[in-house]
Design goal:
2 domains; single chain; alpha+beta; binds FE2/S2 (inorganic) cluster
Length: 153
């Protein structure tokens, strides 16, 4: 994937060039690109003068980081216990059908990524779907299209 890395220079300038800046830098790069491009990881290692293997270890240790591109909108269907007993599987099925994605997949146009997650901390609202930053509670299968904001096929 080709990227405009002009933003990377600005991100690298935000923090001291020291190993302690690594996680913060990766967080900002993840936010800017929706994942951690390989070229960016190499540049971070060079700038901070830390081994590439250390950067890779941190990038793969934290679940918040991704080494593959994510969609502009991440759809997280909760399948924790409270959501599971209130129909999370039906919600997942409908998300899969409407988005044409299996959990863990990203659309070719990078519009959506579908993820299945454990408890998102809103059990009283179960079943819960988080679209981007917005929590949707008591979701029914027939409301999934509206929650996702996708048009009729
Ligand atoms: S189990 Fe889904 S929000 Fe807690």
């Amino acid at each position: 994937m080709n990227h405009d890395f002009s933003e990377l220079e600005g991100i690298l300038a935000r923090y001291p060039k020291a190993p302690a800046s690594l996680v913060m830098l990766l967080q900002d790069i993840q936010e800017a690109y929706n994942y951690l491009p390989c070229e960016a990881l190499q540049q971070v290692a060079d700038e901070l003068k830390v081994p590439h293997s250390q950067v890779f270890s941190v990038a793969t240790f934290y679940k918040v980081f991704s080494l593959t591109p994510k969609g502009r909108t991440i759809v997280r269907v909760c399948k924790g216990t409270a959501c599971h007993v209130r129909g999370a599987q039906l919600i997942t099925d409908e998300c899969e059908r409407l988005l044409g994605l299996r959990p863990g997949e990203t659309a070719d146009d990078l519009e959506f990524t579908l993820e299945v997650v454990n408890c998102v901390g809103a059990c009283a609202m179960a079943p819960v779907v988080v679209v981007g930053e917005k929590y949707h509670g008591a979701v029914k299968p027939n409301r999934v299209r509206k929650v996702l904001g996708v048009k009729r096929c």
